Amino acid sequence: MIEAISCGGIVIYHGKILLLYKNYKNRYCGWVLPRGTVEEGEEFAQTAVREVKEETGVDAQIIKYIGKSQYSFQGTNDAVHKSVHWFLMKSSSFYSKPQKEEHFLDAGYYKYHEAYHLLKYSDERQMMERAYREYTSMYRGYSRKRR
Known about the structure:
InterPro entries: Nudix_hydrolase (IPR020476), NUDIX_hydrolase-like_dom_sf (IPR015797), NUDIX_hydrolase_CS (IPR020084), NUDIX_hydrolase_dom (IPR000086), Nudix_hydrolase_domain (IPR051325). The protein is an alpha+beta fold.
């Protein structure tokens, strides 16, 4: 079995969550969160920021580490066990541009309930749910301090 590690971001801008739509030869299509493979010598946080930028064009800053999801699938020659480390991130802009070379056709920010129903994979929904709870609790704490 091959072990693989990726990192990604749940990017939020004004309460909306950044998603990507991928369509690869009509065999793989659906809405996903930005993520990608850790390069040699790279820290997980660096990978998450880089992958978000490459796949969406968004300059995002990490707020905090959210957790790890894991799954397995059959690769070309062997089974692959993948771990994905997720970070809650924020953006200072609504701008996004999907990376066409990776077969992303669309990118955009969606309200929580829309993003929840659009996401293709349950593990990504769980991580988004965790990140959004953290985001809303931080925001409530911030607004109370300003009163």
